[in-house]
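Model it.
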Amino acid sequence: MTGKTDKTEQAAASEVLGYEQARDELIEVVRRLEAGGTTLEESLALWERGEELAKVCRRWLDGARARLDAALAEEAGTEGAEGAG
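Modeled.
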């Protein structure tokens, strides 16, 4: 049952990570996986953590893209309204 609790705690911790924190930790996870020398169990745990971190990064990037799109749409709407008047 400890494994499930650890995963729940990791997921909750991932939710509060900023983009840069998640990215940096993901880089470290990839570095450790590429270096090798870990047991199968350690490699699987690293892989799972990497997946969680990638999801955190994706959510941040999707949110940033949505904000940028909204700002660009607002700017285009403002320019269109000025030209119509």
